[in-house]
Each structure stands twice: as C-alpha cells, then as structure tokens.
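Need the bound structure for 5,6-dihydroxy-NADP, inputs here:
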Amino acid sequence: MLGNFSYCNPTKLYFGEDSLKFLNEELPKYGAKIMLTYGGGSIKQNGIYDEVMAILKANGKTVFEDPGVMPNPTVEKLYEGCQIARQNEVDLILAVGGGSVCDYAKAVSVSAYCEEDPWDKYYLRMADVDNKIIPVGCVLTMVGTGSEMNGGAVITNHASKLKIGHVFGSNVFPKFAVLNPVFTYTLPQYQMVAGIYDIMNHITEQYFSGEDDNTSDYISEGLLRSLIHSARIAVKDPKNYEARSNIMWTATWALNTLVAMGKTTDWMVHMIGQSIGAYTDATHGMTLSAVSMAYYRHICPYGLPKFKRFAINVWNVDPAGKTDAQIAAEGLERMENWMREIGLVMNIKELGVTDDMLEGIAQGSFIMDGGYKVLTQEEIISILKASM
Ligand code: NZQ
Ligand code: ZN
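Answer from helper R.:
Posting the output first, comments after.
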C-alpha cells in the first residue's frame, strides 16, 4: 500500500538539442551578478563554456567565475565558493557540469550566508536551512546523479575521511536545469558507464525495499528496462542520440523523488560506496558497482519475493520449473553479466581499496534501516571482503 505523501518538484527542465537557448528565458528572472561554477576544464575544451558565456553577456550579466570544482567536491572547495558568493553578493549560481558541480552549487547556495561552519551544520548535524539561500540553475554535462532535479549535495571531508550527502528540501532544488544530451557526447567512456550504473543503483536502492504492490515499483521497472536497453547501445555507439537522451531522461527520473513516493527505500549501497569514496576519491558510480553484487546477493534471501519480481520483470527470467531462490539468483546473474558487458568496475581493489582500509570504510558507512536487512558492521566488512 502506498503511504501518504505530498509531491511537488519545483525544478523547471529544458530538454533537448536546443535547450541551452532557454537560458535566455531564465536569466532575466535574476539579478545581474552570476556566479559561474564549473569543474576542471572539460567545458572549455568542448565549447560549452563559450556558448554559456555568450548567453550571459547577451543578457547583460556580470560573471564571477568559480572554476575547479573537483569530482567528489571537498569541504575546502565549499568554503572557497562561499567566499566568492558572499563577497560578490551573487544573485544566481549557474552550475555548468556534472553532479559534482551541481551538488557543490547547492551546498554553496545554503552555506554562503550560514553563520556557522556548514560542514558541522549540514553534514554532521543534518540541520535544516534557516538562512538566505542563493538560487541555483544547472546546465548538465554528465548524466547519472539526478542532481539537476533534486536537493542532494554530497561533500567530501578528506581530513575526517567522511563523504556525506545532505538531501535538502525543495527550496534548495535547482530553479531550472538545461539537459542537452549532445553535451554528454564528450564524456570519457569510463564516466559514461559510471553514470549509467549510478542511475541503475538509484532505482534499485528505492526498489529493493518493501513488498507492496505499488505504482512506484512499476515505474522503476520501466526505467530500469529503458536504461538496460539504452546502455547497451550507448557503449557501442556513444553518439547515438536516442540512447543518450533516454539515459539522460532516465537519470533525472531515477532520483528526482518520484519513485520513492509512498514507499520505504534502502540506500545501503550508496552508504558503503560513499565511504569507499572518502578513502579512495574513486568515481562515484564505480564505488557502487564494485560492491553491488556482493551486497545484493547478501540481502537477497531477506527480500526474496522482490528479487524474484526483479528477475522476471526487469531481466526477463523465465520462472517455469524454478524455485524462487533460483529465479532471483538468475536475475542477479543477468544483472552482473550486463554490468561486465558495459565495462563497470566490479571490485574495490581496482578502486585503490586495501585490506587495512576495510574496518574504517565499514565504520564510515552509515547504517540505514529501510532495506531488507539492517546490516551489522561485521556484515559490511564481509560484503567489502567479498568485493575485493
Ligand atoms: O571537471 P570536469 O573537467 O568538467 O570533468 C568532469 C569530471 O572529471 C567530467 N565531465 C563532466 N562532463 C563532461 C566531462 N568530461 C567531458 N565531457 C563532458 N561533457 O566527468 C568527471 C566526473 O564528473 P562529476 O560531476 O564528478 O560526476 P557525477 O555527475 O557522477 O557526480 C558525482 C558526484 O555527485 C554525487 C557523488 O557522490 C559525487 O560527489 N552524487 C550526488 C547525488 C545527488 N545530488 O542526489 C546522488 C548521487 O548518488 C551521488 O552521490
Ligand atoms: Zn549515486
């Protein structure tokens, strides 16, 4: 049974090959001072920077640049961004990049006018925002996180070896997001497939919880089928617009709160993956793929009916003459084969994890209670060992 909920996603999306021009509709809604936030330089190489700059200038904006947002943005970079935003009293943060840039922009938006240390307030204490929020807009160049239409803002603190996501409310969601699938063509294959798995895992984290017959799970199955199909095309033909646009759209719906409505969710793969990220700074999607099979095989017996449904409805396993456990196992085997086929990292050693890190990674993995099994530290360590 679906629980009670209210649903409103305030982010306005502009999707398609011509979507960048809609910046001309959005920019006049904000003051003249724009903080242009971007990553390590990909947007300068592929020309997106020039296109965005031309539109900003044409709209009479004064641009304060905030470059150098690294993958897995750090707390030190957050402090730097807050200073730029506050000193220049910017009216809008325009994030041009992937999830890291969009997440960071949201973190700056709530932290620039925060009177205390934002790491303590938002990440250690998970406090609500009670200060001025600078509006954020996104031009997405990397697909996976769903950050373009949600309140997530993940920040890494290397000194304390913690990577933590604060999921802010709808007042922090981007006001608008431009989604042009062509902008993702220049992504390295490694990043593209990491993003594809991030999408899959966002859906499965929300799907593998509860056993009710609800619409959210049917939507999730449809999104997964589309993703599996489009990913196979995109890895062979990265400039296939149909595949790349389907992947981009699936990513947004995978984590814009829709498929979690009215049901419980898990998120343990992300908790373990984020802790691996804090230790290794590895690419987010790969930290998830590398532990997923060990995790799902571990919890499968506790959520057997759902794993059986997953095998049949998502992976087309024929149930005839098989036990539920056999059907579920075949589904996970097909999932693993697909993961290997598209080129995901399937073990944590490859990400730089060494045996002496396992204890710390387990301790840094926040334990959630929405999945089929509330894990103990020992179980996390055994999942990590099985992922080596
Ligand atoms: O920095 P540049 O030079 O732009 O290069 C980036 C970066 O190296 C590159 N890239 C992006 N667009 C490109 C491109 N290269 C060529 N052409 C393009 N069009 O790709 C690399 C990775 O970018 P990044 O933004 O780090 O990737 P992603 O989108 O996967 O974001 C990862 C971050 O988002 C967080 C992750 O934890 C991680 O910190 N997440 C945010 C979530 C949310 N907001 O809800 C949920 C996710 O589960 C995730 O935790
Ligand atoms: Zn993710």
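Comments: The mean pLDDT is 97. The radius of gyration is 20 Å.
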